[in-house]
Automatic annotation (TrEMBL):
Residues 19-28 have a biased composition (Gly residues). It comes from the Archaea. This is DUF3179 domain-containing protein. InterPro entries: DUF3179, TAT_signal. Residues 18-66 are annotated as: Disordered.
């Protein structure tokens, strides 16, 4: 069912999504309002299970366990804004070209890039290129992967893909990119990583972390890596972001500007586009203030009889990491060294603690709260 409010259509025109199809336009900057909301979360979350025969027949790698989803499949389908652009109207990059980082020119130190390291191979994907394509079907460290980015929710995420390519469906859910696989054509909202319709509905993808960092930080850490080139055989103006600019944040990306499409559930406790480190932990969804994490270095989450979690700040890339721990209060932070102090007093790399790592990714507040209205929030505010 097509659902597109008049307000959304007007916002769509203003944000210049047409720019993703080859044109350009200014980003939208307007007052924050609460919006309409769009769906009701299911009390027990999604209860559907994937079809085992479909899983067996599919070439799409899927996770052993279903990821948490707080809405029914029917509610997700009802809330989907369909055909915002035609399918593949925003073309994925399926034969990506790379160049050594020391041969890449015309990049500013603070330009955002999305970095991935797998099996010893490091690659960077500039936000300025991904904003025009949203999906790169690539191979890193000998493994086929999809590196994905949704400009409207500020989420960069990686997925294993086997020999299947992913494309941009042209649909949006909670403003988030809805991918489709070019195998059985199931539809996958990026942030949920769980199919909402198609033969693999209710199945979840295999995720891996993508570091959202800057060009300067990445090239200092990985001077011998490669970067996705700006010459990709597509007619695109990679120097012009149709949503505004991330360096510095302006237009659509300014954290106190309004969303484009009403979220599944509206929550006005924080500016709509403030970035949080978010996780669908086994003890419930978590949103951790990146600003607070930068100030404290480590951030412990616990209580209520559940396991503790420890968020750590990694100054090398200006990113956060999340771990499960027995007692988060036993950890400290050495800001001068940029190191976590463990219970034995040893300084350790925030990105490589000998603890159980918990998958987390950065997301704009309105998008995370829309998908996971039960989220707990951890911040100084």
């Amino acid at each position: 069912m097509t659902r597109r409010s008049r307000r959304s259509v007007l916002a769509l025109a203003a944000v210049g999504l047409a720019g993703c199809l080859g044109g350009s336009g200014p980003g939208r900057s307007g007052p924050y309002d609460e919006g309409e909301g769009g769906a009701e979360a299911a009390p027990d979350g999604m209860t559907a299970s994937p079809d085992e025969a479909a899983l067996e027949a599919s070439s799409v790698p899927t996770a052993d366990e279903q990821l948490p989803v707080e809405y029914s499949l029917e509610a997700l389908r009802e809330a989907t804004v369909r055909e915002v652009v035609p399918r593949d109207g925003i073309p994925s990059i399926d034969d990506p070209a790379f160049e050594p980082v020391d041969e890449s020119v015309d990049r500013l130190p603070d330009d955002p890039v999305f970095g991935v390291v797998r099996n010893g191979e490091a690659k960077a994907y500039p936000q300025s290129v991904l904003v025009h394509h949203e999906i790169v079907n690539d191979e890193i460290g000998g493994e086929p992967v999809a590196v994905t980015y949704c400009p409207l929710t500020g989420t960069a995420m990686g997925f294993e893909r086997g020999d299947v390519e992913f494309g941009v469906s042209g649909h949006l859910l909670n403003s988030n990119l809805v991918m489709y696989d070019r195998d059985g054509e199931s539809y996958w909202p990026q942030m949920l990583a769980t199919a909402m319709e198609g033969p693999l509905e209710a199945a979840s993808l295999v995720e891996f972390p993508v570091r959202w960092t800057t060009w300067e930080r990445w090239t200092e850490a990985y001077p011998d890596s490669v970067v996705l080139a700006s010459d990709q055989d597509y007619i695109r103006d990679y120097g012009n972001d149709p949503y505004g600019a991330y360096n510095p944040p302006s237009g659509y990306y300014a954290e106190d500007t309004d969303w484009t499409f009403a979220p599944l559930t509206a929550d006005d406790r924080y500016p709509p586009k403030r970035p949080f480190l978010c996780s669908r932990s086994d003890d419930g969804p978590l949103a951790i203030s990146l600003e607070a994490l930068r100030e404290e270095g480590v951030y412990g989450i616990g209580g209520d009889g559940r396991d503790d979690y420890l968020a750590t700040y990694d100054p090398t890339f200006d990113v956060g990491h999340l771990y499960r721990v027995e007692d988060a209060t036993e950890y400290g932070y050495d800001a001068d060294a940029g190191a976590v102090i463990d219970p034995n007093g040893e300084r350790r790399d925030p990105a490589d603690l000998p603890l159980e790592s918990v998958y987390a990714y950065d997301a704009m507040w309105f998008a995370w709260a829309g998908f996971y209205p039960s989220t707990s929030v951890h911040t100084h505010d």
